[in-house]
């Protein structure tokens, strides 16, 4: 069965042995190599990282071999490497970019291929479009500029950092300590040390094993760690740190009297946080918490970047401090662009990705967990208590995303309906703004909003709602489902 290779919001992903095959991985690598060489920077080399999934080492070997054939040096991260660490390694090597082999939080049968350009953040659409065009040309046997059909003689041995016959000896290139140094400059580890915290850590069998426990342990935190061995089946579940998947972490936090529970997804670019009372802190809660902390404790000033699906509580806070909000389509690549170009001090998305000023413009779950610990240490109370302080000042908002499956035929009909979808009122409130940046977003007079986005690959609609009360949230959900025949 032939599958089209396309880059989604965060790279190309596929099922191992179905479409994520060695042949396809080599093909995509050749397309990336042609892109990098077309920019005249191939000689700077590419960092290569991978997560803990099935055949991860073998896929990395295939990528390295293809890059060498195109005379591109390879800096292979030893062992499993989180996506943010692989991205940061670009800055260490002044490389042309990185290839990260990961399917992030997807189910165990999946793997993925992510290209991270030289600026150490997700590839923007114009870059992935060029890579996809290179893939098409290579598949069709057409000439592909800057792609070498025959490898140069005598180039194999020294282009991959190696010792003896190994592609990478672990003493050769490990960005671990450099990355630890980077985040230690950003996070107030002394405040954490003084607070005498106890923290439970769940890296969910992923590439983030060893990072939080090392950094926090060195800062005097009493840590308890579990799910910290490699398991390509992720314990029979998804490596996705959500409220539903972190039951054991919640229990361990409550039973052990811990101040926090911190979780990472499969490649450690997304975070999950449990407060001392066992409550899951959603990304839509944590982003305002962090922005509040940056404004009031660190005394930073600057705009915030958020996706169209992310909480407007950030807007209320930015407004009070005279700062702008940059709204972007869904996808951290756009957040990273705003961090780079707009001087934003924080950027994030409701799905659990964030970064801040002074760090790489890539999602970093490790940094998020450390900043959560810093907040608890500085404020001397739990995150839910800090949230109440924020709600007192700015009001509380209630957010939820519904994923509604339908049929291909009904999806087509609804997409046609959405072209002219413009209700004057929802839940008794006037619709005051329609935003078509990514899907259809309707903003109401009282600040509540609804976003309707169709999946690009499935007969599925995602309905995001943020409201001023649980009752209004439910009413908006029901009205949208009824108007679009999604019941």
TrEMBL record:
Bilayer-crossing regions: none
Keyword Lipid metabolism: no
UniProt cofactor(s): Mg(2+)
EC class (word): isomerase
GO biological process: carbohydrate metabolic process; purine ribonucleoside salvage
One Pfam family named in its UniProt record: PGM_PMM_IV
EC id: 5.4.2.2
Catalytic activity: alpha-D-glucose 1-phosphate = alpha-D-glucose 6-phosphate
Keywords: Isomerase, Magnesium, Metal-binding, Phosphoprotein
Protein name stated in the entry: Phosphoglucomutase
Organism: Desulforamulus aquiferis
């Amino acid at each position: 069965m032939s599958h089209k290779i396309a880059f989604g919001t965060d790279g190309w992903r596929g099922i191992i042995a179905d479409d994520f095959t060695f042949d396809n991985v080599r093909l995509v690598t050749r397309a990336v190599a042609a892109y990098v060489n077309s920019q005249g920077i191939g000689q700077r080399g590419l960092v290569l990282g991978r997560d803990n999934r099935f055949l991860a080492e073998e896929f990395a070997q295939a990528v390295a071999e293809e890059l060498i054939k195109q005379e591109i040096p390879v800096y292979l991260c030893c062992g499993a490497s989180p996506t943010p660490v692989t991205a940061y390694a670009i800055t260490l090597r002044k490389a042309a970019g990185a290839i990260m082999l990961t399917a992030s939080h997807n189910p165990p049968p999946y793997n993925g291929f992510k290209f991270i350009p030289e600026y150490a953040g997700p590839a923007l659409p114009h870059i992935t479009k060029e890579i996809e065009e290179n893939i098409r040309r290579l598949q069709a046997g057409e000439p592909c500029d800057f792609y070498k059909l025959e490898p140069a003689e005598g180039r194999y041995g020294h282009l991959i950092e190696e010792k003896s016959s190994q592609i990478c000896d672990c003493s050769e290139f490990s960005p671990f300590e450099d990355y630890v140094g980077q985040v230690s400059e950003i996070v107030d580890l002394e405040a954490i040390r003084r607070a005498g915290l106890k923290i439970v850590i769940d890296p969910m069998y992923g590439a983030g094993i060893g990072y939080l426990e090392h950094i926090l342990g060195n800062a005097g935190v009493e840590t308890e760690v579990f799910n910290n061995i490699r398991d390509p089946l992720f314990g029979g579940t998804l490596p996705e740190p959500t409220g539903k998947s972190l039951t054991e972490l919640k229990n361990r936090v409550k039973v052990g009297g811990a101040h926090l529970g911190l979780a990472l997804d499969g490649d450690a670019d997304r975070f999950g946080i449990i407060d001392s009372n066992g409550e899951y802190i959603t990304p839509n809660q944590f982003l305002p918490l962090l922005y509040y902390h940056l404004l009031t404790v660190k005394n930073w000033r600057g705009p915030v970047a958020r996706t169209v699906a992310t909480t407007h509580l950030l807007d209320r806070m930015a407004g009070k401090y005279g700062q702008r909000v940059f709204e972007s389509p869904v996808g951290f690549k756009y957040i990273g662009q705003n961090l780079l170009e707009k001087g934003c001090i924080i950027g994030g998305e409701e799905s659990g990705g964030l970064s801040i000023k002074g760090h790489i413009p890539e999602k970093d779950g490790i940094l998020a967990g450390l900043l959560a610990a810093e907040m608890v240490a500085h404020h001397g109370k739990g995150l839910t208590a800090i949230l109440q302080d924020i709600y007192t000042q700015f009001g509380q908002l209630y957010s939820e995303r519904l994923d509604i499956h339908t049929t291909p035929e009904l999806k087509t009909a609804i997409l046609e309906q959405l072209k002219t979808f413009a209700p004057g009122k929802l839940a008794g409130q006037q619709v005051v703004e329609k935003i078509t940046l990514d899907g259809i977003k309707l903003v109401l007079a009282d600040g509540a909003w609804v976003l309707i986005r169709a999946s690009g690959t499935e007969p599925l609609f995602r309905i995001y709602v943020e409201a001023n009360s649980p009752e209004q949230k439910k009413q908006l959900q029901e009205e949208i489902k009824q108007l679009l025949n999604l019941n």
